[in-house]
Request: fold
Amino acid sequence: MEQKNQVTMEKIESLCKRRGFVFPGSEIYGGLSNSWDYGSYGVQLKKNIKDHWWKFFVERRDDMVGLDAAIIMNPKTWESSGHLANFSDPLIECKECNHRSRADQIPGIDVKMKEGGLGLSYSISLEAKCPNCGKSNFSEPSIFNLMMETGIGPVHLGGLYFNAGMFENSGEKDKKREVILKINKAAVYLRPETAQAIFVDFPNIISSTRKKLPFGVAQIGKSFRNEITPGNFIFRTREFEQMEIEYFFNPKKDDWNKLFDELKLSMEEWMVSVGISKEKVHAVEIPDGERAHYSKRTIDFEFEYPFGQKELFGLAYRGNYDLSQHQEFSGKDMSYFDSETNEKVIPHVIEPSLGVDRGLLAILLSSYQEEELGEGDVRIVLKLKPTIAPVQVAVFPLLKNKPELVAKAREIYDALKMEWRAEFDDNGNVGKRYRRQDEIGTPYCITVDFDSLEDGAVTVRDRDTMAQERVKIADLKAYLLDNLNK
Ligand code: GAP
Reply:
């Protein structure tokens, strides 16, 4: 079979919408920029990716435990972690069209945070052009915090900010102070990463699990960032899911280089196991000066997307920065008592951090294929790994108006759906049903025909080779067990 054109983002977006993997959020109201909803196959694929990750990194290992913490945490968390002060991007506005961009993403603009986070130093060359209108007339860049703020309790933060501004202008300082106190009491943040809860909960985790170092804590959940330039479909959004691990160890006893390499290898193995194309992934070492000051080593796994090679996942050695910060700000002991050395230690961590949505996009881009079948006929197929495919087996009666075929197909479907993700389909001709399942990525289709009623066998069609073979109904489970677990 001849491979056709390369995959593009337009093709992936169109397939996702057509088949109900992902579609624009709130579409009937004109959408909400860069918000996406996962439809029936998308939510199943996403769940399978997360389940597979959980099995791979948590259930099959003795040295990992799980956590599912609240999205809204005590705001002190973000003060301690440094997010309130430093989790920001440089924002620049075009004076011609008012388009806002990330200054560090425009060629010709050099922008850096000043020492100690006190403002920005920058230079704008004549080559710098607004990505919207192409003109070169910019405002001064400013620091824009990416934290998503909301209020708890019966307050309206917007109204309070408005009042604070009014009292500032009218010179009523006492009233302004009162309003600011109210804001401080009510303002909370949607977490920008799942990781911090793992640090904050560390004392409860060690006392309840009694795990010995080294061990990891894993968490999957939503994170929120007020990104200045979201885009490229589900690549960069303001609301996304992360799968993160904090792997704690004693720096006096454990070799961090070895642990780092082991976790890197596990991430690479996992990526292959979910069908992310190995050739398109590049482990990029982040050089000194570009890493966080507390990190001894950071790797970005970058992927060759159609819009360029960009970050997919990250792996970072974070020292004991986070636990130490939380110890200082909370006044609580965040150390671990090592009974072998009789010493207290604030563990160090290595953090594998994976975006679910970005992972799903990389899987779709790796598995999308167009095949030329002759006479202008092109087959679109998602060659998803059977372990994560939203549907693993589809069952068809050859004709929908033949009750005896429908009854037999239903009987087979009912038996298979207890063990695999199965779908019953009697819509349109069988050829069309195959093509629909190819686009969903279903590895096997089973057709019940008139011969099935006589010989107790069905036609099983393989997604990748399109080969068909007769399999006895009695042997179907063994057949699928063999083939779906490959
Ligand atoms: N705790 C470390 C941390 O959050 P990060 O590099 O900022 O590190 C980790 O994020 C991963 O989360 C990224 O590698 C990416 O897969 C995903 N991610 C980050 N921002 C995202 C966004 N705006 N939209 C979708 N995924 C995002």
User: Anything to note?
Assistant: The CA atoms of residues 326 and 332 lie 8 Å apart. The chain has 15 helices and 26 strands. Residues 193, 195, 225, 227, 236-237, 240, 242, 244, 311, 313-314, 351, 353-355, 357-358 surround glycyl-adenosine-5'-phosphate (CB under 6 Å).
